[in-house]
Amino acid sequence: MKAHDALYIDGAWRPAESGDVIEVVNPADEQVIGKVPAGGALDIDTAVRAARAALPAWAATPPAERAARLAALHQALAARKDEIAGTVTAELGSPPKFSEAVHASVPLAVVASFAELAARHSFEEKVGNSTVLHEPIGVVGAITPWNYPLHQIVAKVAPALAAGCTIVLKPAEDTPLVAQLFAEAVHEAGVPAGVFNLVTGLGPVAGQALAEHPGVDLVSFTGSTAIGRQVAAVAGAAVKKVALELGGKSANVILPSADLARAVNVGVANVMSNSGQTCSAWTRMLVHRDQYAEAVELAATAAAKYGDRIGPVVSARQQARVRGYIEKGIAEGARLVAGGPEAPRERGYFVSPTVFADVTPEMTIAQEEIFGPVLTILRYEDEEDALRIANGTVYGLAGAVWAAEEAEAVAFARRMDTGQVDINGGRFNPLAPFGGYKQSGIGRELGSHGLAEYLQTKSLQF
């Protein structure tokens, strides 16, 4: 796509207040593929004012009409599916097949789910002698990351629209082009002017201005736990609601009764997917001591097959970060069985699919989110030891459990301190609530739980 040299505010493309721009770089070949405006505080203020002006009418719009706009948005995005996939491949470096199957397709399912939810959700209920109203919370400031650029936009904007909120979106500066495509689709879908606004810009400038703006009622942020703390602090000063989807260090627990080969192969694929840039990736594989050597061999063999199948990480900065963690793992005594810190190609921000064995729970690579194609394998003595290791980080976003009997896996999963657990390779469900325990966040996205984040409650007594 050709990048817009403007911001989408109040139903139209408008120039930014400053002439500053952000260069968008293809991480596969390091070539500049476009430029977008670097919006600032004045642009955020203009967008928030537009959203506030549009709020009363959109909040009063019948849910059936809001559902119709979401259905039209689904159609507009579907018509751009190929362009979306190509854009994500260009600005994120995702392999074309993965861009088509995941980056362009999953958001369509999510938008469709919220169109259906908006049409059937009950926005009021009777509780004794009270009528309880579920009303839109107001203006939403949405700050999204680069790893799943369209999905993360849709997971915030679609429920906000369904709830009757208006939105100002600040997308990640590394992947702003697909956000511009989304704005085009919103316009084509007939969403009223001011209901959705897009300001591209840098996080410390536009992102902070959005989080602290007094006209924003809810800040929804997805990204690192470190930045999430800053967003929460800024929003908390104004006592405004926050929804935070943050980091993860998810455990993939393989119980002794499981099909070891399948569990290991699926676990490796999970970590290598999207070049390891997935907050819910099962980056810690936990294996019983009696099966450990076999699991390590299986994982090393599986990882070697991904050398030419995964794309680069998003930027030179991210490449250096991931390689630094690999070097840290070696320095702390973990055993490298696949990959390593050396760049596998001369050009592009590629990282070799990497597997560490002999990892202990206190090692940095077992505690901190790496956000790259790096798997750590830890041994456990018994089930209680496995549970201690699985729950032994500050994170609690996702996880997996494998066992011969489903009931055995479920019993273990119930004891895990995490927001989502896949049982024996369970499939992604766009209607299930997504979010974390502990420092992995506050609130939930997707489905009815995701819609609830954008509603506030009023009771009328009779």
TrEMBL record:
Q: Where is the active site?
A: 245
Q: Which InterPro entries match?
A: Ald_DH/histidinol_DH, Ald_DH_C, Ald_DH_CS_GLU, Ald_DH_N, Aldehyde_DH_dom
Q: Which UniProt keywords apply?
A: Oxidoreductase
Which PROSITE patterns does this one have? ALDEHYDE_DEHYDR_GLU (PS00687)
Which Gene3D superfamilies is this protein grouped with? Aldehyde Dehydrogenase, Chain A, domain 1, Aldehyde Dehydrogenase, Chain A, domain 2
From what superkingdom does this record's organism come?
A: Bacteria
Residue ranges annotated for the Aldehyde dehydrogenase domain, each copy included? 13-459
PANTHER family hit by this protein: ALDEHYDE DEHYDROGENASE, ALDEHYDE DEHYDROGENASE-RELATED
Give the family from UniProt: Belongs to the aldehyde dehydrogenase family.
| Protein's name in the database | Aldehyde dehydrogenase family protein
